[in-house]
Design brief:
The complex is a heterodimer of chains A (170) and B (224). By secondary structure, chain A is mainly beta. Chain A has a domain at 47-86 and 110-170: Sandwich (Immunoglobulin-like). Helix content of chain A is 3%, strand content 46%. Chain A has 1 helix and 12 strands; from the N terminus they run αββββββββββββ. In chain A, strands 1, 2, 3, 4, 5, 7, 8, 9, 10, 11 and 12 form an 11-stranded mixed beta sheet that branches. In chain A, β11 (149-156) and β12 form a beta hairpin. The two termini of chain A are 28 Å apart. In chain A, 42% of the residues are buried. With 224 residues, chain B is of the alpha/beta class. Chain B has 7 helices and 10 strands. Chain B has helices spanning 13-16, 22-30, 92-105, 109-112, 129-139, 153-163, 205-216, and strands at residues 46-48, 57-60, 68-71, 79-85, 115-121, 145-148, 167-169, 180-183, 186-189, 195-199. In chain B, the strands form 3 sheets. A 5-stranded mixed beta sheet of chain B has the order 6-5-4-9-10, sandwiched between helices. Chain B has a two-stranded antiparallel ribbon with strand order 2-3. A two-stranded antiparallel ribbon of chain B has the order 7-8. In chain B, β5, α5 and β6 form a beta-alpha-beta unit. In chain B, α3 crosses α7. The chains are: A mainly beta (170), B alpha/beta (224). At the A-B interface, α1, β5, β6, β7 and β10 of A face α2, β1, α3, α5 and β8 of B. β6 of chain A pairs parallel with β1 (46-48) of chain B, so a sheet runs across the interface.
Chain lengths: 170, 224
């Protein structure tokens, strides 16, 4: 593993994007450091007009840990950020509703926000998935094509750096 | 509801459903019985009376739309699946559109050709017609989608309001990027402008497909 790591711990550091090496030496979609393991890493295929993408995976960390940053090579995207999709439920019960009740603008609204860390609980597993936590890729250098491999470096408080290959899927 | 056998494109359907959505979906499943109307048998959400959006029209910037004011409703015997979103959105929007694409791809062609997806951009500044068409063309066949875009904020707000939807531009980050919070469900609108069903974010494509088959099949719309 010859990658130079992008240690984005602060917003100030994040401004200095650059600093991610070539992606040789990546090996497989599961990586481990100590007891921590990552599986099912994938990134969504993007269209030529999209400048953003997202990567997902499952991180297992017996004893718990904290994901503090993620990065990708500068040949892939300008920046990677930890994001959380946020949303309100479109309804609170039942499969139908009475339209006489106020519809309430903003019902079922979803958005997302950058987070500076994600806690992996002591008993377990953190799943980054659509509609939840994800690694947002900004300023994609080129579209993520089906079957492509996106090397992602995770920064964990206890486990340190973990390198993962995310496979591009629809 | 969640243990049915699914084929590959849907393998992740359940895993994709965020934990917060699951209880809602279980409630939907639990409540799905009653007086026997079509709405009672659907996986998605229905309203009584249905939302009426028949008067809503926006410019359709898709190649077939030519920028003309076009109503957000299905053909006489079909449906328009209306979604409010934006192409900069990396997570929720492509997840939803990919699920719609899978659902439509598995419908019999006779039914699929009666369905059009209409995406309304909630970010017209960055979503040029070209960006919108390129984005939707990735998920849907030519002629099977409409690219609704207006640069008139009031016109967009009126269209959203008719659906009970809304959107809100977020603050720009240090790079000038901004996000847009928006209503995340998909609205299925028939030819009269009635919203027959809404699918909240995270609805499995299999559930969408079966709702579409029910609405478009024998005894459904266009068969009277």
């Amino acid at each position: 593993m010859k990658k130079m790591m992008y240690m984005a711990a602060t917003a100030a550091a994040a401004l200095a994007i650059a600093g991610c090496g070539s992606d040789d030496g990546s090996d497989g979609t599961t990586a481990a450091a100590g007891e921590t393991s990552v599986s099912d890493a994938w990134a969504r295929v993007t269209t030529p007009t999209q400048t953003t993408g997202a990567a997902y995976m499952t991180i297992e960390s017996p004893g718990g840990d904290t994901l503090t940053a993620a990065s990708v090579p500068s040949s892939v995207a300008g920046e990677a950020q930890l994001h959380e999709a946020t949303g309100e439920e479109p309804m609170d019960s039942g499969g139908s509703m009475d339209s006489t009740a106020p519809m309430g603008s903003g019902e079922g609204m979803m958005g997302m926000r950058e987070v500076d860390h994600v806690v992996i609980p002591a008993d377990g597993t953190l799943t980054l998935e659509p509609g939840g936590y994800h690694i947002m890729l900004l300023d994609l250098v080129k579209p993520i094509e089906p079957g492509a491999t996106i090397p992602v470096t995770l920064e964990l408080e206890k486990a340190g750096e973990i390198e993962v290959d995310a496979t591009a899927e629809e | 509801m969640f243990d049915r056998v699914v084929r590959r494109p849907r393998m992740r359907s359940l895993a994709r459903v965020p934990a917060v959505v699951l209880p809602v979906m279980i409630l939907i499943a639990a409540s799905g019985c009653g007086s026997g109307g079509v709405g009672d048998e659907l996986n998605g959400m229905t309203r009584t009376p249905p939302t009426e959006v028949g008067r809503v029209a926006l410019p359709d910037e898709s190649p077939g739309g030519g920028g003309r004011q076009t109503r957000l409703r299905g053909e006489e015997d079909g449906l328009m699946l209306v979604y409010f979103g934006y192409t900069f959105c990396p997570d929720v929007c492509p997840t939803t559109l990919a699920d719609l694409g899978v659902a439509l791809g598995e419908l019999p062609e006779e039914q699929a050709r009666r369905v059009k997806v209409g995406m309304v951009t909630v970010d017209p500044e960055r979503d040029t017609p070209k960006a919108l068409n390129g984005y939707l063309g990735h998920f849907f066949a030519p002629g099977r989608f409409a690219s609704f875009r207006t640069t008139d904020d009031d016109e967009l707000a009126r269209a959203e309001s008719a659906f009970g939807a809304s959107s809100k531009l977020g603050k720009a980050d240090r790079h000038g990027n901004y996000e847009v919070a928006h209503t995340a469900q998909v609205f299925a609108v028939d030819g009269t402008g009635q919203v027959l069903v809404e699918w909240p974010f995270g609805t499995p494509s299999e559930d969408i497909r079966s709702d579409l088959e029910r609405l478009l099949g024998d005894g459904g719309i266009g068969s009277a």
